[in-house]
Amino acid sequence: MNxxxxxxxxxxxxxxxxxxxxxxxPMNGEPLDFRGLLxxxxxxAELFLSLGVGKGDSVAIAMRNGLxxxxxxxxxxxxGAATVxxxxxxxxxxxxxxxxxxxRAKGVITQKxxxxxxxxxxxxxxxxxxxGTDSSAAKDLRLLLKDLKGHARTxxxxxxxxxxxxLYTSGTTGNPKGVLLTHRNILSNAxxxxxxxxxxxxxxxxxxxxxxxxxxxxxMVVLPLTLGCKTLVVSHLTxxxxxxxxxxxxxxTIMTGVPQLFSVLAKEARGLKRxxxxxxxxxxxxxxxxxAAPLPETVIRNFESALGASLLEGYGLxxxxxxxxxxxxxxxxxxxxxxxxxxxQVKIVDENGYTLHHGQEGEICVSGPNVTPGYFGKTDDTExxxxxxxxxxxxxIGALDARGFLHIKDRKKDMIIVKGLKVFPAxxxxxxxxxxxxxxxxVIGVPSHNGEDELIKxxxxxxxGHKVDKAxxxxxxxxxxxxxxxxxxxxxxxxxxxxxLNKVLKxxxxxxxxxxxxxxxxxAAAA
Length: 527
Description:
Elements: H1 8-18, H2 34-50, E1 58-62, H3 67-78, E2 82-85, H4 93-102, E3 107-110, H5 115-119, E4 126-129, E5 139-140, H6 141-147, E6 163-169, E7 177-182, H7 183-196, E8 204-207, H8 214-227, E9 230-233, H9 241-250, E10 254-257, H10 259-268, H11 271-281, E11 287-290, H12 297-307, E12 310-316, E13 323-326, E14 339-340, E15 345-349, E16 362-367, E17 374-375, H13 379-385, E18 392-400, E19 406-411, E20 416-418, E21 421-423, H14 425-432, E22 438-447, E23 454-462, H15 470-478, E24 489-492, H16 506-526
Parallel strand pairs: 1-2, 1-3, 3-4, 4-5, 8-9, 8-10, 10-11, 11-12, 23-24
Antiparallel strand pairs: 6-7, 7-17, 12-13, 13-14, 15-16, 16-18, 18-19, 20-21, 22-23
């Protein structure tokens, strides 16, 4: 894409002026065209200006996927304010207060069902509910728009390098950090993704993942709304019937998801339901992009066989807005996360920062217009994020093959050191998933008894109707793993802790293990 980048709103406005009658976000069975969406965005921007929000300010958005989320975000983009997308499932007062205070948010836009979490906060900004309110502590967005006086207010438009969003990542220790993303970061990534997948105005996107996550926002909202495409916005994953029907009715062509979603869809595609899914809901689907967690090859094969659409794995992180690389329908390597998208560069470095050759494992570093300028208000963390020559350090371990395809080995922070040897949990987890009774597995390093080394511990969830025998599993692993890679401890659990994108929270497992071991030490000392 060679279009000039100004800001996200301007690109959307130009698209709306070029295609005013083109349907954009189907809502409740009624079509909404680009002109109608632009009018709603402009009207809401006037409201924010009347509330004292302007360029350089920030406003938090804690909502389910929907038109209100899109309208509020693009309205803030127009006036140069930054969005602070918040996971609507967060309800802990301390965490919410930290995010709102740290981001200096002037207000919160949420929905009625989430008001209880926000009403009790010690927060001086405004609180608005997009779908009505039953409390005097919050204002009704619809009434505010209805009562808004019609005169235009002056505002300062943002430039390409002004901040568009502040996204808070879940820290492994301490409070989360606010990742800064500029208009250039987000737009360049959206358009590079479009170029990689040959997007046209005829494509129809499906936004299933939560829009507070940059993967959904960049690829399923900003991309289509700045390139003249229709996007189907899904507020609830269950029941699946309504959004599958919506996909079929509008001939959806591109969607994103997580491995578990695609695994479930493949399993559901049996008998008559397979005909419904393949020849109705997925009949025009050409690309399904999977992210947020490793995508097993068995899921790819089962999904593509059952539904006939390409299931492709990509790689990204919040700090890169987010897409770094992706497999393409006609250029993919199983087990890889594909080639870097246009404009993005990837290199692999060793512990001293020297660039490694093809096939050598090291830390993945990224350069490109999609790379964050840093963390909000955290100079030291920002400095530590980059190499001496300005490349972003991802904290992931990987390798580039001779054709330039990127292969992820593991998270650098998840790496376990056993007697001086590096062990990557993903390698052990891949073997565990080969066991016929294991549905899910997570591997972590825990302190040894003397505290000088680490032990490998695995957590396993059994498949429905199966039982996992620890002794038998140990024998299974013994024949498939080098001695230093074999887990010393196996724990069977009902479920693994996960975030909203179904990604296993290993930091929670590590914290639990440390607390258990500390408690045992205290008991032993007291005995």
